[in-house]
Design a protein that fits this description.
Length: 121
């Protein structure tokens, strides 16, 4: 049996590093990790607790796919937040559409500039 100890990171494909950095750093307040090696393509790592989000500016093999409107019914990364109302306010001020969890939980979903779904819980 395989013993999995921890999720280390989630990798997300992006098309425009500057636009993605404005979203993840400017809106979400994440700080880049300077230890990302040169992989031969643009990208950035963000530390979130003991885990990371890796943004990779590489060709998207799913570019032609149609994503569901609600991010909770799509591939997504879930992020724990201190205050869901603060997330709503920040997204509304930035003009970023979001939808509330369909389960009734105090969670919401939005998409980054490339359509990657994020859950805030």
């Amino acid at each position: 049996m395989i013993e999995i100890k921890q999720l280390l990171h989630a990798g997300l494909i992006i098309s425009d590093l500057a636009k993605s950095r404005a979203f993840y750093e400017g809106l979400l307040g994440l700080k880049p990790n300077a230890l990302r090696p040169d992989f031969g393509f643009e990208g950035v790592w963000y530390d979130i607790g003991n885990n990371q989000i890796h943004l990779m500016a590489v060709p998207n093999p799913d570019a032609a796919s149609i994503r569901p409107e609600h991010g909770g019914r799509d591939h997504h990364v879930a992020l724990s937040v201190a205050n869901i109302d603060a997330v709503k306010e920040a997204l509304e001020q930035a003009g970023v559409p979001y939808s509330m969890s369909k389960s009734g939980r105090a969670a919401l979903f939005c998409r980054d500039p490339d359509g990657n779904a994020l859950e805030f819980f």
